[in-house]
Amino acid sequence: MTKIQKLKNGIKFIPVPIKGTKAITVLALFPVGSRFETKKISGISHFVEHLMFKGTKKRPTYLEISCELDAVGAEYNAFTSKDYTGYYVKINSSDQKLAFDMVSDIVFNSTLPEEEISREKGVIVEELRMYDDNPIMAIDNLFERTFFGDYPLGWDIGGDEKTVRAISKKDLDSYYKKYYRPDNMILAVAGDINKKDLKQNLKYFEDAVLPKVKLNNKYKKYKFAKEKKPLQKRVGVKTKKIDQAHVIMGFPGLKYTDKKRHTLAVLLSVLSGGMSSRLFVEVREKRGLAYMIKAGSENFADVGNVYVQAGLDPKRLPQALQVIKDELLKISTEKVDKNELKSAKKNIAGHIALAMEDSSFQAVWHGKKVLTGVELTTYAEEVKKLNKVSAEDVQNLAKQLFDFDKMHLAAIGPLSSQKIMSMLK
Length: 425
Prior knowledge:
Cytochrome Bc1 Complex, Chain A, domain 1, 2 domains, alpha+beta, globular
């Protein structure tokens, strides 16, 4: 089993050797994301992420950074979520020194150049507009606003045009210095690891020393209302003249560390684990109601949700909603048969096995486990936990989750709120 190590400056380090690969991924994770923000600086986590590639003390311009990495065919990117932000370089192991040098330089020595800030505001605003114009993407944000309300978990990770344009150089510097420090970082290195090279390359991170300030990684935990909310407060609709209606139906789910997370994985696989899954067969294959139909979940440190998403002809939405509801009620009231249960488990295990061949997947897999407090496990241990899930476990969890008094629904399309509400009554 991979063990967590600690570098002398406080960085949590996870080495993940992978046999049979010539690639190596260096990933830096920070437990800070959009839920740590205030309304005034909404979108700043994502803004900082954009600026990290714009120049460092060692590499003053974005071209110096990108040209070095492009010259060796490296893959590099970053991502911001509500709970964390990550930066990685995936590279040929013969060039791994550059990956360690570059990632450490970006996360600890970025200058957030002032001349890039105003330029990047325009880029981010266009990114926000792109998401808003694409209903498949926009439905996620609408659902989260409907589900969590006016609370950081319900805000767009990128902020909005007003907040992004108002964020200052001072705001960005302060946020960066507050959270981007060795004692607040997780380093995951996965792939073709050589112990001698690793020891030398870790110095790029070990040598990072920043002024010690009291770290405050706290945020306000979210709590679901105990009282039943009226349906109109659980439905969010954006009326838009498009050919399809895009809809997400969701329910309160599980947090990262919930002991039922393996049961949830099996439950979602039964519902939406492939072209033979229940929702795919009932909604798409038997009735031709939708091209895209899927079930999934979002998990955070304190709460989560589970949802079903579809895109379809607005005229057929009432029928689709009824079929989805019937399937959720069915899995809550009837046990999954042993063959379907076995197939769902093997489906999950197969997907993980294939993904494990990718060093970047393994880096994120292990890094997120450490960040979220989930125990580090091997592939075999994960499969063992999945295999312990029973049909009773799946039914009981479905019964717990699919409470239609707590159901939230978001829709985008040529439909009014009144029309959507009438479909749900």
